[in-house]
Amino acid sequence: MGTSSFFSEESIESRLRKAEEALGVLKKLAELTFDEFASNLINVYAAKGALLIISQVIIDISNLLIASKDLGVPTSREEVISILESYEILPEDIAEKLEDLIKVRDKILHSHEIVGEKALYEKILGNIELLEKALGIIQKEIRSPSTG
Question: Is residue 148 part of a domain?
């Protein structure tokens, strides 16, 4: 694994733990009805924060994978995912959905567009399994002896 503190083994493991924690938050929020979710602003902000954390961890670790395997130089966050797809690290269906989630992340983070409670709730319900799979793949790849 990388030698800089940004990509130290400890930093990578810490990021992966934070992503798992954030995934746990999304799972708890997915247990709520939409009305329960939307009626409490804390839920909405928790969902946004969890999506931001998971998306950023996926982007960061994916960038490290690309660099460590010398797969190219991505020019955007979405391209990070498409590079992993092109090298068959991420399956096409997962890559496409991750690219969509990264766009939602950008909307939340940069407020280009307001992400409404209903859209956010549907993103949570529709993507927990996807996020689990993506994190599993990325964890396996980054921990692989050939990465480094």
Answer: no
Residues whose CB is less than 8 angstroms from the CB of residue 107 and which lie 6 or more positions away in sequence, other chains included: 113, 114, 115
Is residue 114 included in any domain, yes or no?
A: yes
The answer to the question of residue 52 being in a domain is yes
| Domains of the chain: total | 1
Whether 45 maps to a domain, the answer reads yes
Regarding pTM above 0.90, the answer is no
Distance CA 70, CA 90 (A): 16
Q: What is the pLDDT of residues 36-95, one digit of tens each?
A: 999 999 999 999 999 999 999 999 999 999 999 999 999 988 899 999 999 999 999 999
Contacts of 137 (CB under 8 A, 6+ apart): 89, 90, 94
* Residue-number span of the structural domain to which 69 is assigned: 5-143
Specify the DSSP class assigned to residue 2.
-
3-state DSSP percent of the chain in helix, strand and coil, to 5 = 75, 0, 25
Q: What is the largest CA-CA distance in the chain?
A: 48
Q: CA separation (Å) from 107 to 7, 113, 116, 125, 132?
A: 26, 5, 11, 18, 22
User: CATH code at 20?
Assistant: 1.20.120.580
